[in-house]
């Protein structure tokens, strides 16, 4: 694997307290697998390596305005958000986990959808920075990572999913996306990605 650091963005997807935190609204869905797989530590190592190499780090987070007035509950997952009243922008719920806090020069993109490219300026910001490759990692593998990866491929980006820096609600859900994604992009480990930088 080869990566050009000047044209590669590392997309840290949905590492928010409500999704990946120990007490977040979605902790019952995701936290056990996050801990079992040890993905926070792997993500931190990946972020540190990307920054040290001069790569662009982009955090994507899903968040909604007060009263969820920008939430369209057209899919069941967003219906759960509406019922719970979770993921409100400007609250600790949508802050990035303390262990993975954005650093100077990192971008933070907010969107009110499952995928990072939907209803956000992510594509415009990446193109303005000369990015042609996205390295994806985060929660959940079969939801945000898969959705964002498919959209990125359709938009013309080279897509790499970091398998050991992703988690889903179950091992089976994670593995199903990893098994199929090789036809849509590339799957690699954090060590392989860091070595390619």
TrEMBL record:
The record's section on PANTHER family has: ISOCHORISMATASE HYDROLASE (PTHR43540:SF1), PEROXYUREIDOACRYLATE/UREIDOACRYLATE AMIDOHYDROLASE-RELATED (PTHR43540)
State the name under which the record lists this protein.
Hydrolase
Residue span, Isochorismatase-like domain: 8-191
Q: Which InterPro entries match?
A: Isochorismatase-like_dom (IPR000868), Isochorismatase-like_hydrls (IPR050272), Isochorismatase-like_sf (IPR036380)
Q: Does the keyword Hydrolase apply?
A: yes
Question: Cross-referenced CDD domains, in alphabetical order?
Answer: cysteine_hydrolases (cd00431)
Q: Name one GO molecular function term.
A: hydrolase activity
